[in-house]
Amino acid sequence: MTTTVIDLIRHGEPVGGQMFRGSKDDPLSITGWQQMVAAINMDDRWDVIVSSPMARCRRFAEQLAEQREIPLHVDDDLREIGFGEWEGLTAEQVQQRYGDHLNRFWQDSINFTPPGGEAVTDFYQRVILGFDRWQDRLAGQRILVICHGGVIRMVLANVLGIALDKSFTGFAVPYACRSRLQVDQSEFGVFRSLISHQP
What are the GO cellular component annotations (predicted)? Predict the structure, then answer.
């Protein structure tokens, strides 16, 4: 039996606050750094860190990897979903400019993609491909993944069998939220379970 423990932590608040950020590469605000520091415990033990390439994830990951003297891997597949023309806009601004588009996205994100954005099905496939690759490559280790709310939603939807059309609205993933997964691999197959989810 090989057991892998994977902690997923969403980045803290970025500069500019709440908005559809996607590929907009804002760094963490001072509050965001404080949120991330508070999310990490002295008794946390990881063998390796995997991070999204976005500044709001990567800069904290780099500092933590240096402090803990553990390897850091950066994976482009773990970046946030692209929101296209919505990026940089608040929910209110999207509603003002695009009418009922936001409601349509929340109600049917599978079939409605923001103008110029990334389809949720493509996003899901990209994230799971990247996540599974690290799960296999780092099997038996304790892994910290620093990433995004959308990425965590895709991973948890995959592990828990949540329908993709419910994945964006099915559970809360606030800034610096932590989720722990355990992966047990044996001759009987692979068993993945959610151990904790702490918004």
Answer: cytoplasm
Cα angle: 133, vertex 69, 6; to 5 degrees: 35
Average pLDDT of the segment spanning 49-65: 98
Q: Is 11 a catalytic residue?
A: yes
What is the CA angle 80-86-92, rounded to 5?
115
Q: Could you give phi then psi for residue 76, rounded to 5 degrees?
A: -65, -25
Candidates 11, 13, 118, 148; catalytic one: 11
Helices 149-160 + 120-137 axis angle, to 10:
80
161-192 confidence digits (pLDDT tens): 999 988 888 889 999 999 999 999 999 999 99
Give the predicted TM-score (pTM) of the model: 0.96
- Catalogue all structural domains in the chain, each as residue range(s) with its CATH number: 2-83+118-198 (3.40.50.1240)
Identify the active-site residue in 62, 69, 80, 187. Answer: 80
Count Cα atoms within 13 angstroms, Cβ side, for 166: 9
pLDDT digits (tens, 9 = 90+) for 93-126: 999 999 999 999 988 889 999 999 999 999 999 9
